[in-house]
Amino acid sequence: MAASISGLASGMDTATIIDQLMQLEAAPQNRLKSRVSSEKLVLSSLQALNKTTATLATKAEALANDTAWTPLTSSSSAAGVGVSTTSSASPRNLTVTVTSVAKTHQLGYADAAGLSDVVTGASTLVRLDRFDGSPVEIETGDGTLQGLVTAINDPANDTGLSATVVKVADGQYRLLVESKATGTASDFDLTAQDGSPLLGGATVRAGSDASIDLGAGISASSSTNTFSEVVPGVTITLGAQATVGTVSSVSVSRDVAGMTAKVKDLVDSLNAVVAEIGVKTAGGTTGTAGPLAGDGGARQLRSQLLDSIRTDGGTSLASYGIQVNRDGRLDFDEAAFKAAYAADPTGTAEMFTTASDGFAARVAEVAKGASDSTDGTLSAAITGRQSGIDRMEDSIDEWDRRLTLRRTALERQFVALETALSQMSSQSNWLAGQLASLPSSSS
What we know:
This protein is α+β, with helices and mostly antiparallel strands. The chain has helices spanning about 15-25, 25-65, 145-155, 255-280, 295-305, 335-345, 345-350, 360-370, 375-435; strands at about 70-75, 80-85, 90-100, 105-110, 125-130, 135-140, 160-170, 170-180, 190, 200-205, 210-215, 220, 225-230, 235-240, 245-255, 320-325, 330. A hairpin with a 2-residue loop joins strand 13 and strand 14.
């Protein structure tokens, strides 16, 4: 930058003059900056609308799937009897009576011993017999009670058992061994290597299967407390509170409330997109114009979403609780939908799903056509706007370089002017001095 000698010779405020000239020079850049700000507002509005529309597309696609229309709700009147369902279940009522619960096989040994006492007899090996014809021998290390417990519980031995000691007096413990699995097939025996009893022999609590009575002479059994697919798609589980004689009324029914909530959520999401478009495309005749006031694509999206309520066959969705109100949005009558779904679940589903070009399928097609990240109309508009903004910002950067050069040139010109005026002033003063020093002539 040239040295500033503002007004030293001319008396003019050349710095202010340069600033004013630069304001004129920067006017095109300022207009470009203003346009960038406006374009960024449009861009952010499109991005927000695209996000809302993408959310709508996701919900509509989910509801357009046939599998979304087979939800069931299940309940049990007894706390100890649980019920769960899969998509293959169908509505039904069952009366379940618990006739037995699954138990593990237990051995409680009679004699007490110290943890360091040898309890395995002459050998440090013990014999585990699961009554399958293939007994195994387990090495206990030192043959002590603690060594026996450790060997039984060692995962490497894969005994399928759990052993513990119960303190019955100071330094005296009794051995309790239990199968990890439940059911009659979980039985086992644990003896010394030669087959003689350990610790005075054991009291047996035999493992048992669980069983339930479903009425009419039909019962089911399970080695666990879970009865998988006891009827197609329905699993019954006996919990800790289930006892012999527990009776439960099990109900499997269509989840009308759940389906109503899903349809309402779809309608609310569609209305949210419509409302957002309405605000952002407002013309400004009675207030501030919306950032998308001139965007025909957004208005077209709004029209397409509202048109999705119309079916090709002329069937009205009003009987299913959906219709357009006078404000240009959708109303949802939950009671009307519940009644229609309860009366004809299959027919109601067909009004929404892809297989029948239903309402949810049409909404999904429109919303995805706008928000798809590859070829959606909103996505394309966003990409176009961003590219335009990038080009304008590049131009603004170029203007910064031009204006810097222009200011430097003006400063140099005014410095040269001040220098020239200063030199002329010096010369004028010198000439005036010379003239003043000449002798005056006498008449």
